[in-house]
Amino acid sequence: MRRAGIIGGGAWGTALAQVCARAGLSVRIWALEAEAVAAINETQENSLWLPGVPLEPEIVATTSLSDLADADLILAVPPAQHMRGTLQRFAPDAKPGLPVVLCSKGFEQGSLKMMTEVLAETLPQARPAVLSGPSFAAEVARGLPTAVTLACPDEALGRALAEAIATPTFRPYLADDVIGAEVGGAAKNVLALACGIVEGKALGRSAHAALITRGFAEMTRLGVALGAKAETLAGLCGLGDLVLTCSSPMSRNMSTGIALGQGKPLAEILASRAAVVEGVASAPPVRELARKLGVDAPICQAVAAIVAGEVSVDQAIEGLLSRPLRPERSDAFN
Asked: What are the C-alpha distances in Å from 307 to residues 162, 163, 210, 277, 301?
């Protein structure tokens, strides 16, 4: 593997382009915005989405997906709700058997499908993998130490991909559970909104810790119901990502939750941000999946109700705190 194609020129796509370049790959990154492409090619900086970070000289940007046709591997990083349309546009240029690493976190609204399912429907000949874990784009782009999960059903391919993109400061840990990697990445964004609300309402560190713990139980129940392994959710792509995203305002999802907790309307918050807040888009399908599978997920359901405008933040908090008392069983994530 010598040539990497990155689909998505946002902050995370740009950070992964940095990783691939540092790993010795030639990198071509596709971005929707001509402004980002021009900035990368002319100044070696994505001033639109990742300002202040000098990019590796091996990174070349393009607005044409066909320029990625000769890539040996693809890292797909468009927002989850745009994954299907973007891959459909790339399909005519995708060679058979192309490894596609899915790096976006979320369930597709309407269909409730995971990104691996979207990939199977749009690029059926592609070989899938999922990259997920605790990773802030700005830190990864600057070369700070990061460990992630690389889940791939094909062990040999997973090993080849890990070796291709690993650097001394970017460590992919292999797994075969793509469902677990996907569920962890999607659910943690919803839970980060809840943790942000706790912060914005100044409910204290005890409440914050309780929400992370009970949220992790919800994430695990949902993942297991979908066919994931509980131990996958206890790793980097589940608990690790949850702790990071729920612990720093650097997270778009947590910072959005903070603003909600401070009383700002969701529409106003989203209008003031250029980047996508994946937790807002993922909350409705997470709630719908939990209902469909009979999974108890009160925190995710409360966030979805807030996002949908069905309840206020205070009503959602009151509803969670008035739930019946119940035993805590570590073996069942009850």
From this structure: 37, 40, 22, 12, 10
